[in-house]
């Protein structure tokens, strides 16, 4: 298993960080501070550096500090013996640029997966409670880190669906869009759609047993849990589906079938989780899901992913927290970043860890490290 870590980070003009520098521990980093001080922003910078985008905001311009004209993140990563520099920059009104050792990437997709990462955050419960888009994103984010080809196929598919939708919108029903162009888009969609569906199917089939095992550990094996990938393409040929739905699509002016409508069904005791799980069961379910995602990424990349735990301590009782921390400090996990607004709670937990565990504490105040 290859070891890798974020060693140092400088943030300039990034959200509420004007200009701050960090030197991190290779194992555990605790980011402490009151609400609204910038703990999540720091974790988001790490997310952006590893995965090419923010976990929280959809547009890069929202990452630029209110009083800044640009943001710049400069990170030093270590991969075994090697050290490399990743720089991300974005100025107002310009596309962001990504550089590795001063060479710009042509495609961001070439960077994704170099530093695998999993984030566990309070709004993870949206995965269960909200619409299917977030569940597709969960699958896509894992698979894109596993394989650049997956990300490429996904981007290709999304581009074609956008073009097909634009064509469908270009005429007012009952007028008909150009059938030759429609045929051409549909023909081109088949390959990427098939690649996406096969990869998602395989991913969920492999994730399920790991997830069940982790859930059994966390909940003392009380309930039976399951994950099911749902896609109309598993039952029917995509070309046929497109043909069958063409009239409807022309009428509604959008593409109503395809992998962009797939879902992931979370089950517990043979029922759908969303409808009846307790708050405690939801928490354990999500935590198990994310830890299983970690395991899957680790197996596929043969690297220890970076783990970000954003403010999740309120969600777990003291005993579970202790167990979780002990688990994370073992050899099955790599570098971990934890944010928490309750300094004392984290300090108490840290005191119970074995002396040998390497950790660093950072107290954040208004986007800067507070010096004692
Ligand atoms: N583009 C921006 N420029 C400057 N400040 C920003 C920008 N976007 C967000 N902020 C500020 O960042 C702060 C929020 O930071 P963050 O979410 O990291 O807090 P936190 O320490 O994680 O707090 P909590 O404990 O409440 O989760 C807010 O004060 C907000 O005003």
UniProtKB/TrEMBL annotation:
* Alphabetical list of PANTHER family matching this protein: DNA REPLICATION AND REPAIR PROTEIN RECF
Q: Which keywords are on file for this protein?
A: ATP-binding, Cytoplasm, DNA damage, DNA repair, DNA replication, DNA-binding, Nucleotide-binding, SOS response
Q: InterPro entries given for it? A: DNA-binding_RecF (IPR001238), DNA-binding_RecF_CS (IPR018078), P-loop_NTPase (IPR027417), RecF/RecN/SMC_N (IPR003395), RecF_2 (IPR042174)
List the Pfam families. SMC_N
Where it sits in the cell: the answer is:
Cytoplasm
Q: Does the keyword DNA-binding apply?
A: yes
According to its UniProt entry, what is the function of this protein?
The RecF protein is involved in DNA metabolism; it is required for DNA replication and normal SOS inducibility. RecF binds preferentially to single-stranded, linear DNA. It also seems to bind ATP.
What is the name of this protein? DNA replication and repair protein RecF
- Keyword check for Nucleotide-binding, yes or no: yes
Q: Which family does it belong to?
A: Belongs to the RecF family.
Quick one: a GO biological-process term for this protein? SOS response
């Amino acid at each position: 298993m290859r070891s890798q870590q974020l060693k140092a980070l400088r943030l300039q003009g990034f959200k509420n960080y004007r200009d701050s520098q960090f030197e991190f521990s290779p194992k555990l980093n605790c980011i402490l501070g009151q609400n609204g001080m910038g703990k999540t922003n720091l974790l988001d910078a790490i997310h952006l550096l590893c995965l090419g985008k923010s976990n929280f905001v959809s547009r890069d311009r929202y990452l630029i500090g209110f009083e800044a004209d640009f943001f710049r993140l400069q990170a030093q990563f270590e991969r075994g013996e090697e050290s490399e520099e990743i720089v991300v920059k974005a100025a107002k009104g310009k596309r962001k640029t990504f550089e590795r050792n001063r060479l710009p990437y042509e495609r961001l997709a070439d960077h994704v997966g170099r530093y695998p990462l999993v984030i566990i955050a309070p709004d993870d419960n949206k995965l269960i409670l909200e619409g299917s888009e977030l569940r597709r994103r969960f699958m896509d984010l894992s698979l894109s880190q596993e394989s650049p080809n997956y990300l490429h196929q996904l981007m290709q598919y999304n581009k074609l669906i956008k073009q097909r939708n634009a064509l469908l919108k270009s005429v007012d029903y009952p007028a008909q869009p150009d059938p030759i162009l429609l045929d051409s888009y549909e023909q081109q969609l088949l390959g990427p759609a098939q690649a996406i569906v096969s990869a998602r199917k395989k991913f969920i089939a492999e994730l399920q047993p790991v997830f069940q095992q982790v859930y059994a550990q966390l909940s003392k094996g009380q309930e039976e849990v399951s994950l099911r990938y749902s896609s109309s393409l598993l039952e029917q040929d995509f070309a046929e589906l497109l043909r069958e739905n063409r009239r409807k699509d022309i009428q509604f002016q959008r593409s109503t079938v395809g992998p962009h409508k797939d879902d992931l069904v979370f089950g517990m005791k043979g029922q759908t989780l969303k409808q009846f799980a307790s708050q405690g069961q939801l928490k354990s379910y999500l935590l198990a899901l994310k830890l299983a995602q970690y395991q899957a990424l680790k197996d596929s990349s043969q690297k220890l992913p970076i783990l970000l735990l954003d403010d999740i301590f309120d969600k777990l009782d003291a005993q579970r927290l202790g167990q979780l921390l002990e688990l994370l400090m073992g050899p099955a996990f790599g570098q971990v970043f934890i944010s928490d607004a309750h300094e004392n709670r984290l300090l108490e937990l840290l005191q119970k860890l074995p002396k040998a565990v390497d950790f660093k504490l950072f107290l954040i105040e208004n986007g800067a490290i507070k010096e004692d």
